[in-house]
Design brief:
The complex is a heterodimer of chains A (237) and B (394). Chain A has 237 residues and is an alpha/beta fold. Chain A has six helices and ten strands. Chain B has 394 residues and is of the alpha+beta class. Chain B has a domain of 162 residues. Chain B is built from eleven helices and 13 strands. Classes of the chains: A alpha/beta (237), B alpha+beta (394). The structure holds adenosine-5'-triphosphate and magnesium ion.
Chain lengths: 237, 394
């Protein structure tokens, strides 16, 4: 079966002006993520992993190259990113090292907010958020404020928020860095479950060697270029 | 869900403190404007209540409130003879120290032309109007005189027979009403004492002021041309006001003014500087308030930049962010306004001078606060809209 990739990056470069010199944070990178795949992005610090996610998430335009999501070209060099906000809202979920929850909203409200800003009625938003938190074993924590939750719990709420709009692409930048080994694995397993159940594609940036075995594939970056792709698990869906 | 209200509930204490801070500024503005309104109301009250159609005052002057006026004590008989004049009353005021129970207060003694006038235009809170031509007074309540109190004015004993409220002069001194003959006596005696003192100061400086009794009689005769301030005219219903004016002015030694003239003079001359001063102060306060509210809203926005970036990252429209900022600004404004009015109602009645809270003024102030909040929101919004989603990562 030759499905359309969820994410397809073609010859993308990202250059930053830094004083007189130009930093090539990303240099002619191409990659694909298929539905149902959980893909690792590895590499030393400064190798361009976060930059790759920003470009895939339509938060930065590539200096050169193209980004396709669900087969649709969404990124042009120097395109207006503001106009892509609603596209982002419908199609991409983000998870970061820090949970970045809104401190004055409860766990349930943090998740429901992602739905309400997508014009879901407040009641439906709460119902779905309740169900999502339940499925992430957080039913008993839903009325707690972020500061009353542990780091792992906060991160799971952040995952629930990223999943709220049923995105087909999930981008995670070191989501396990602040968690202990077991919690970290749990989050990646969660991604796997979502990828399998919802046919979504997941890209996870990580330094964490303990979770490597959980990826379908991984790319390794060095100085803004892809140096190799691992295939620890030869299978799809 | 309403982000502004959720945030406020999360940090309720800080919101209340902020609103209270803004509220104090609003209270101060209300007080400033109210003080001015109070002074104007106090100044105009007597002119309004006394209900004269025309005031006959010293020629070439615009007395007795905006400058001094002195006319002879029998001017009323001359005015009464003019066609169209239904009634005349003599009017004069003098500031006087009043003693009772070892205490002494300053009162503005105001003449009532008894018996044609018993002071029945004065609203009493207790007691009665004048019934005798001598030694009775109606006192304003801020003089703290109880009904029936015996007081000493000059050398005579008076009885408080009536109490009124809110009757003060421009400086806030309570009015004390008594018959015009009593007032003339008091003023005459005082003038004589002053002359006597002036004479004696040439001889020795150690002489006491109070014991001029023995000499009183001799000076009295020398200075019998006592003055009053004005004659109040009530026109007969059919009278032509203009004709009466002209007849009086034709004498050459008096000036004629209507009640409205008196009020205009007070507002535009005596009180003009005060008005400008208070307006300027109010302006300064409003500027301070604008700066404070703007800073607060701006700081609240800065504090939330990370969350605003997160909202943008998950795809929130700008309207979500703008609503949060605007609603918070207006909630702070509204909370401050409510607090300010509440506090004003609580404390201003205990102030020594009347503070008038005029509905129209409060409306204007509310509008000003709303404009300030809108302006403050704009500053916050312009900062918030410049935040980029990827700042979440920093
Ligand atoms: N806004 C920017 N302006 C200038 N240079 C930038 C900018 N963002 C990233 N860079 C540079 O691009 C390179 C890649 O950065 P990036 O953040 O993608 O690295 P990374 O692989 O995520 O590193 P880490 O593992 O430490 O997070 C770095 O050399 C960085 O200094
Ligand atoms: Mg990074």
């Amino acid at each position: 079966m030759t499905a359309t990739p969820v994410l397809s990056i073609r010859n993308a470069s990202r250059h930053y002006q830094s004083g007189d010199s130009i930093v090539k944070a990303l240099d002619d990178v191409s990659m694909d993520i298929m539905p149902g795949e959980v893909v690792g992005i590895l590499g030393p610090s400064g190798s361009g992993k976060s930059t790759l996610l920003l470009i895939a998430g339509l938060l930065e335009p590539p200096t050169l190259g193209e980004v396709y999501i669900g087969g649709k070209r969404v990124s042009y060099p120097d395109a207006m990113l503001e106009g892509l906000r609603s596209f982002r809202r419908h199609n991409i979920g983000f998870v970061f090292q820090k949970a970045n929850l809104i401190p004055f909203l409860t766990a349930l409200e943090n998740v429901a907010l992602a739905l309400e800003i997508d014009d879901v009625s407040p009641r439906d938003a709460r119902d779905y958020a309740r169900w999502l938190l339940g499925s992430l074993d957080l039913a008993h924590r839903r009325d707690n404020l972020p500061k009353q939750l542990s780091g792992g719990e906060q991160q799971r709420v952040a995952v629930a928020r990223a999943l709220a709009n049923d995105p087909r692409l999930i981008l995670a930048d070191e989501p396990t860095a602040a968690l202990d080994g077991e919690r970290g694995k749990q989050v990646i397993r969660l991604f796997r479950q979502i990828a399998t159940e919802a046919d979504a594609g997941v890209a996870v940036v990580t330094h964490d060697p303990r979770v490597l075995s959980l990826f379908d594939r991984s790319y390794e970056l060095r100085d803004g270029r892809i140096v190799k792709g691992h295939h620890p698990r030869q299978e799809s869906t | 869900m309403n982000l502004a209200i959720k945030d406020i509930r999360y940090s309720l204490g800080r919101f209340l403190l902020t609103a209270a801070g803004v509220g104090f500024l609003i209270t101060a503005s209300i007080g400033m404007v109210g003080l001015y309104r109070g002074i104007v109301a106090d100044a105009l009250l007597l002119i309004e209540q006394i209900g004269a159609d025309l005031w006959v005052v010293q020629g070439g002057h615009s007395g007795p409130f905006s400058e001094s006026s002195a006319i002879s004590t029998d001017m009323d008989r001359r005015v009464a003879g003019v066609v169209g004049v239904a009634a005349v009353r003599r009017f004069t005021q003098t500031s006087q120290q009043v003693s009772f129970n070892d205490r002494s207060v300053r009162a503005t003694i105001t003449a009532i032309d008894f018996p044609s006038d018993t002071g029945d235009w004065i609203n009493l809170t207790a007691g009665r109007h004048l019934r005798n031509g001598h030694y009775e007074v109606i006192a304003n309540d801020n003089l703290s005189l109880a009904l029936g109190t015996s007081i000493t004015v000059g050398r005579d004993q008076y009885h408080v027979v009536g109490l009124t409220s809110g009757m003060v002069d421009m400086g806030g001194d309570g009015l004390m009403f008594m018959s015009v003959n009593d007032v003339i006596t008091i003023m005459k005696r005082r003038t004589n004492e002053e002359i006597l003192l002036a004479r004696k100061s040439d001889l020795a400086s150690g002489l006491a002021t109070g014991n001029s009794d023995s000499n009183g009689g001799s000076v009295d005769g020398a200075l019998d041309n006592q003055k009053i301030a004005a004659v109040l005219v009530t026109l007969s219903p059919a009278a032509d006001e203009q004709a009466v004016r002209e007849a009086l002015l034709a004498w050459g030694d008096v000036n004629v003014m209507s009640g409205q003239d008196q009020k205009d003079l007070l507002l535009n001359q005596r009180l003009l500087r005060l008005r400008i001063q208070i307006l300027a102060f109010t302006g300064v306060l409003l500027v301070v308030m604008a700066i404070v509210i703007s800073l607060i809203i701006y700081m609240l926005t800065i504090e939330k930049l990370h969350q605003i970036a997160m909202l943008k990252l998950i795809g929130a429209r700008n309207s979500v962010v703008i609503n949060m900022i605007v609603q918070q600004a207006f909630l702070i404004g509204a909370g401050g306004f409510a607090f300010g009015i509440g506090l004003a109602r609580l404390i201003f009645p205990h102030f020594p001078r009347r503070v008038v809270m005029d509905l129209h003024d409060l409306g204007l102030l509310a509008m000003t606060v709303a404009i300030i909040c809108a302006f403050a929101s704009l500053m916050g919004i312009s900062r918030a809209l410049n935040v980029r989603a990827q700042e979440v990562l920093s």
